[in-house]
């Protein structure tokens, strides 16, 4: 834990150095595509001239000056399985983005969807040393949070204070400077498999880059796809990717839960390939052009030419109805949504005041998915697109780029995390306590 604490602080310093230089790269390492953006920062303008914590941190003015996307290789379920292939894919996307931006980039912020994320809710309280809360008191209350047993070979990816309470007043965003005696804090911690993180960092370094930050794709997609009211009142973001489906829950503009389902759009493509006996490339084309999950009377008569290049006329001239294609796709989509429903139930999503669900990611573009998701998930469901970012190409504004755009906002407007404060090491949480409280079940 102590090593991770220092490495996260080092990455934060690296990111600040890159922002001072004015250029940084953003990398989304996905199972179906590797996307890269190059950002140019024009400066930081704190709101009202006062530095604040959390979502109200100073806004950074930035614009996209380079963008590139390439097919993902060597990556399955959001994790690196072939180091050489993944390195080539990352280099291809990075070099194309640098060529467009006409600038060399040395630091990169990356996000990934694998690693089997797990959420924990922590709480702690301390007595304020002076009359007013100082930054040292915030560091002490974070260090006072009891550390659960996260398991072997697990690393903390995010550790964010989501709620402060000073004496009898709760729901404080930034307690610094306020007068009180007893300071309490609720914190959300997200852990991932250590091997997945180490492989990603090693692959980035092999591409002659320095990691300036790591983030969960589910967290980044939620920042981008959820509007401000949804982040405030409580909403879930379902990021339907190629190899994994990310789940994140936000309330009070903070992520309080994250998880991942190891199924995505590539599994739907694989089902089509096996069901219709066509290559994966043909199955992906058919899914994109004719796919759906709700059949109508017209679909029995709409025929789809499968095509092919085997040289056998009878095999290459086959055709199927769209209703048959939907019959292959729908069971897998229902299975993914049922898994998402189980994760939301385990997280206590029904206890939130607002239970809005936003679908994003490349898989969310299947026609009729929002209606099917509303029936299975039982809540208000809408399709989400990422926020508009200055300089972003039109080709990168679709739902499939929600995590990439969210990572830009993560770089420009970082929420305060555990390692942003000078932690007193003598008060560092012990790992022996085997309890993890999901604070939002009791407080919201």
UniProtKB/TrEMBL annotation:
Which family is this protein grouped under? Belongs to the FtsA/MreB family.
Q: How does it assemble?
A: Self-interacts. Interacts with FtsZ.
The yes or no answer to whether the keyword Hydrolase is present is: no
List the GO cellular component terms: cell division site; cytoplasmic side of plasma membrane
Q: Which domain of life is it from?
A: Bacteria
NCBIfam families, sorted:
ftsA
Q: How the protein sits in the membrane?
A: Peripheral membrane protein
The answer, when asked if Cell cycle is one of the entry's keywords, is: yes
Keyword annotations:
Cell cycle, Cell division, Cell membrane, Membrane
Can you say what this protein is called? Cell division protein FtsA
State the organism named in the record: Rhodovulum kholense
What's a GO biological-process term for it?
FtsZ-dependent cytokinesis
> Sorted alphabetically, which HAMAP family does this protein's record hold?
FtsA
**What are the residue boundaries of the SHS2 domain, all occurrences included?**
24-225
State the PANTHER family in the record.
Answer: CELL DIVISION PROTEIN FTSA (PTHR32432:SF4), CELL DIVISION PROTEIN FTSA-RELATED (PTHR32432)
């Amino acid at each position: 834990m102590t090593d991770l604490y220092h490495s996260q602080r080092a990455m934060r310093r690296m990111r600040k150095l890159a922002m001072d230089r004015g250029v940084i790269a953003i990398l989304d390492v996905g199972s179906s595509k590797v996307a890269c953006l190059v950002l140019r920062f024009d400066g930081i303008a704190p709101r009202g001239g006062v530095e604040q914590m959390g979502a109200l941190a100073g806004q950074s003015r930035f614009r996209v000056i380079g963008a590139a996307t390439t097919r993902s290789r060597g990556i399955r379920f959001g994790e690196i399985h072939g180091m050489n292939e993944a390195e080539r894919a990352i280099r291809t996307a990075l070099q194309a983005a640098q060529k467009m931006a006409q600038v060399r980039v040395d630091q990169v912020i990356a996000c990934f969807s694998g690693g089997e994320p797990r959420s924990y809710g922590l709480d702690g309280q301390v007595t304020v040393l002076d009359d007013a809360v100082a930054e040292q008191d915030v560091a002490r209350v974070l260090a006072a949070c009891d550390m659960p047993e996260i398991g072997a070979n697990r690393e903390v990816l995010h550790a964010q204070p989501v709620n402060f309470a000073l004496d009898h007043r709760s729901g404080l965003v930034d307690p610094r400077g306020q007068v009180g005696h007893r300071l309490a804090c609720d914190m959300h911690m997200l852990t991932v498999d250590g091997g997945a993180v180490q492989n990603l960092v090693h692959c980035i370094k092999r591409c002659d880059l320095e990691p300036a930050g790591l983030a969960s794709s589910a967290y980044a997609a939620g920042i981008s796809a959820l509007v401000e009211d949804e982040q405030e009142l409580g909403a879930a973001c379902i990021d339907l990717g190629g190899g994994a489906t990310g789940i994140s829950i936000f309330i009070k503009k903070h992520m309080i839960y994250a998880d991942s389902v190891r199924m995505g759009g590539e599994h739907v493509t694989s089902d089509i390939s096996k069901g219709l006996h066509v290559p994966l490339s043909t199955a992906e084309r058919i899914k994109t052009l004719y796919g759906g999950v709700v059949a109508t009377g017209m679909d029995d008569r709409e025929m789809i030419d499968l095509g092919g290049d085997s040289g056998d006329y009878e095999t290459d001239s086959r055709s199927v109805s769209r209703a048959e294609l939907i019959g292959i796709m729908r069971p897998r989509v229902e299975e993914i949504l049922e898994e998402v429903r189980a994760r939301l139930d385990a997280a206590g999503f029904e206890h939130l005041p607002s239970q809005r669900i936003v679908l994003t990611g490349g898989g969310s573009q299947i026609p009729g998915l929002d209606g099917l998701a509303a029936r299975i998930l039982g809540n208000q469901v809408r399709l989400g697109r990422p926020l508009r970012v200055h300089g972003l190409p039109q080709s990168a504004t679709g739902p499939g780029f929600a995590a990439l755009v969210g990572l830009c906002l993560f770089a420009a407007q970082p929420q305060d995390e555990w390692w942003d404060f000078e932690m007193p090491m003598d008060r560092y949480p012990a790992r022996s306590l085997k309890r993890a409280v999901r604070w939002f079940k009791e407080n919201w």
